[in-house]
Amino acid sequence: DFHLYPLSFLEYVKLRENKTKLNLEKLSDLFQDYLICGGYLRAINDLAQHGKITQATYSTYEQWIRGDFLKQRKNEETLMAILQALITTGVSQISYSGLTQKIGLISKDTLIDYCRMLERMDILINLQAFDQNKKQGFPRKDRKFHFTDPFIHHTILNWLTREGYASKPVTESM
């Protein structure tokens, strides 16, 4: 498997600006743009050309996620319910059992299977609780789930909103 990761913020800044020194205001503007398009080149180009991410770009990434799950014979409604639970949980700590209860009607094993597939697709990062004294993770404690890129977060939120699983919050950057 090849993993092609989106650009980091530093790589994004280097792509957008040739200057060796940037003032704080320009860097802040670049960061606000990065929060919209993330590090995906198609989204970066959309933002540069149209001032927003086009629906075609969102659809391309939605189809990638949906298609990979359908190829593995996974249920799309279950995927949507899991993504909705992850979006509404935000960056709060939650256990797999807590997520399962939030979703309802799926087993903990199914949830773990779907989350691991999202991790293998580089969509989701699963962070275990960490014991600073022992310098190791607590696999049985609550964890945090993060989307790997701001654009992926927007894509999933856009998809969930269009399908009626979520309502899109009003934000300045969108």
Structure, explained:
By secondary structure, the protein is mainly alpha-helical. 56% of the residues lie in helices and 8% in strands. It contains 8 helices and 4 strands; from the N terminus they run H-H-H-H-H-H-H-E-E-E-E-H. The strands form 2 sheets. A two-stranded antiparallel ribbon has the order 1-4. A hairpin with a 4-residue loop joins strand 2 and strand 3. Helix 1 crosses helix 2 and helix 2 crosses helix 3. The protein is globular and about 50 Å long. The model has no long low-confidence stretch (mean pLDDT 90).
The coarse overall form would be globular
Count of runs of 4 or more consecutive helical residues: 8
Order of helices and strands: HHHHHHHEEEEH
| Main sheet: strands, sense, barrel | 2 strands, antiparallel
Uncertain stretches of 5 or more adjacent residues: none
Q: Tell me the structural class.
A: mainly alpha
**Quaternary structure type:** single chain
How many beta-strand segments?
4
Strand content: 5-15%
Radius of gyration in whole Å, from Cα?
Answer: 18 Å
Helix share, percent: 55-70%
Please state the average pLDDT score.
90
Brief sketch in words of this structure:
The chain has helices spanning 9-16, 24-37, 41-50, 55-71, 76-89, 96-103, 108-120, 150-162; strands at residues 124-127, 129-131, 136-138, 144-147.
